[in-house]
Design goal:
Strand content: 25-35%
Strand order of the largest sheet: 3-2-1-4-5
Largest sheet: 5 strands, antiparallel
Shape: globular
Structural class: alpha+beta
Distance between the termini: 71 Å
Oligomer: single chain
Radius of gyration: 18 Å
Length: 150
């Protein structure tokens, strides 16, 4: 009997890279959050997706950050990560995480993160979450010196 995969799973498999990103510091826009059951063990994971902007050699590529939702020993790490996104991690319920993080993904937040290999796994550590991705060349209104009367 053949195993059937969805178009989304096939696309994710084609786009995924093995060892594509070396350890180091990265910046990217927070684009997507979803909760899925993955792997043979059907582990519950929160998957956060970032569109990398720096370093430039990886700009435009996506990185997926997997957080365990069925490992009670990891809950402290998950809550600390959610807190970086200004989620009310202290009062948040597991069943509300996906909705809360999807709302955060819609805010176009810039994320600074480090990739660190520990044994055979590469982990992402969120260092900073900015309020909004700034576009190159854009100036804040208070920085503009114009003589328009309005």
């Amino acid at each position: 009997m053949s195993v059937m995969f969805s178009d989304e799973e096939e696309k994710a498999f084609r786009e995924s890279g093995f060892g594509e990103f070396p350890d180091g510091s990265y910046k990217g826009a927070f684009k997507k959050a979803e909760v899925k059951m993955i792997g043979q063990q059907r582990s519950k994971k929160l998957i956060l997706t970032y569109l990398i902007s720096a370093p430039v050699e990886y700009a435009g590529k996506s990185y997926s950050h997997f957080l365990p939702l069925d490992n009670q020993r990891a809950y402290g790490f998950v809550k600390a990560t959610l807190a970086k996104f200004d989620c009310s991690a202290g009062s948040l319920r597991l069943s509300d995480i996906e909705t809360e993080m999807q709302a955060a993904a819609g805010k176009n937040l810039e994320v600074e993160f480090a990739l660190i290999t520990n044994g055979k796994y590469q982990n992402a550590q969120i260092e900073n979450v900015g309020r909004e991705v700034r576009f190159p060349g854009a100036m804040a209104s208070e920085d503009v010196d114009d003589d328009l009367p309005f």
